[in-house]
């Protein structure tokens, strides 16, 4: 165990804290436990006395109700209780009693507060049990009995006694009392004799509703008792008071036994604390040591496999996060090794974009300037009525140039929608051969002007179905076929192949005979206004936006597209996903 290791620190701190807490507990129990017990017990009795007073004032109690209330209070608080008159003398109320139904009569058995040992009272009886009592009746109607023997063991009845046998209908007996409650009840008279000399100094506090709390010691046994007095109400014969007395002996004995117990158990507890602290410190520090080693390897950029702590607590989570961090850092460093190359590529791309922007502005200016100049010239000629015989021809040229500018503007608007991602596809299931055939039919005039022929190869299957946006795919076919016708040799044949190239893929190839595309132009023909031929002959060139639109449409369809130089010319192709469904018109 190293001097500055976390294991040693955890062991020392843990052992010290446990020993300090153990010592403080022992000291607190020795110094404060007895006082705390007395205060808590007296406080609980005081609170319950206030509750007793409220119940007493709320109802008009008869003798039975008052006996039950007193008996319940005595059982719940383990206290001897009595109601005193205005001379601080006990009133004749028995808190404990039994009620027996004998034939059709109810007989009340009053448990005396003195004269009967606790072991003579059966405490395991319940309402509904049969009970036999020998005693003396206390009234003329023979309904109240002073018991002498409860549950007699023989059948002989002593002279002068009366035996009754009946079913228990109600009862209130001593319960949860730590000492003989009947003996403690006898001590109430002794305590009252000693307190009467001090009654006058308590009168003012009692009248104000406060509880008087004093301690009294039994001279015969030396046991201390807590006495509480509380005013009840003004009765017909003057004030009445609630008197409660409880023994404080149990807490003293418990404190002495605890002190002896700690003397014997302290060495054992200290040894166990040291052993358990050592085990605990090693258990807690082991994952910390492993994590420290892993962190050291990470600091040295060693991203090899890190040992994982197989636990579900915070250490295990931290270990897994460090392993994830290691993998992420390793991947990040691998990416950073290519950062310079990518940065150079980005710089070149930026320069290329800037060049394209300049070319775009120049192309737009050129594309719009020429037709505007032509339109202006013919319009001025018409305005000056020059060559009136050529008026129809001039108007036709003006319309053609206006259509050309309108097509350019429409293509630019269409392209801008693609670039800002404003186009949403509406895919349907369509016949690709039918769509291509309809596009071919629309180019009949251009084909005749250059004496071109078109051969459409549909493969073995005459009707391949694809899932795509029919309007957008028609744009693709129009732009590619227009481009192929524009650059095809006169009196040549264009070939269009529609075939299945892979599972679920249909590829369309449009090939013409003509000049190949230069290698440096292959990757740029999809840019705005880019023409493979450097001349700006408006008769041989389109708007320069058709292939850029094709690129965006195919990217939205997530299909492949491209261009290849063939043996006799150039072939453009695009691929769509095949569908097995029916054609949707």
Distance between the termini: 84 Å
The oligomeric status of these chains comes to single chain
Enumerate how many helices there are, as a single number: 12
From the helix content, strand content and strand pairing, which structural class follows? alpha+beta
Mean pLDDT across all residues, rounded?
79
Structural domain count: 4
Task: Estimate the strand proportion.
Answer: 15-25%
What general outline do the C-alpha atoms trace? elongated
Order of helices and strands: HHEEEEEEHHEEEHHHHEHHEEHEEHEE
Radius of gyration, CA atoms, in whole angstroms:
56 Å
Helix content: 40-55%
Strand order of the largest sheet: 2-3-5-4-6
* Major beta-sheet overview: 5 strands, mixed, barrel
User: Segments where pLDDT lies below 50 for 5+ residues?
Assistant: 534-540
Tell me the total number of β-strands: 16
Coiled coil: 333-363
GO molecular function: ATP binding; phosphoprotein phosphatase activity; phosphorelay sensor kinase activity
Subcellular location: Cell membrane
Domain Histidine kinase: 363-580
Describe the structure.
The chain has 585 residues and is α+β, with helices and mostly antiparallel strands. The chain folds into four domains: 78-250, no CATH class; 292-333, Orthogonal Bundle (Helicase, Ruva Protein, domain 3); 342-419, Helix Hairpins; 428-577, Histidine kinase-like ATPase, C-terminal domain (Heat Shock Protein 90), CATH 3.30.565.10. Helix content is 49%, strand content 20%. It is built from twelve helices and 16 strands. The chain has helices at residues 6-58, 63-77, 181-195, 199-207, 249-299, 314-337, 339-383, 391-419, 432-442, 444-449, 470-486, 546-556; strands at 80-84, 97-102, 105-110, 130-137, 144-150, 162-172, 212-217, 224-235, 238-247, 428-431, 453-457, 465-468, 493-502, 505-513, 561-565, 569-577. A five-stranded mixed β-barrel has the order 2-3-5-4-6. β8 and β9 (238-247) form a beta hairpin. α1 (6-58) runs antiparallel to α2 (63-77), α1 (6-58) runs antiparallel to α5 (249-299) and α7 (339-383) runs antiparallel to α8. The two termini are 84 Å apart.
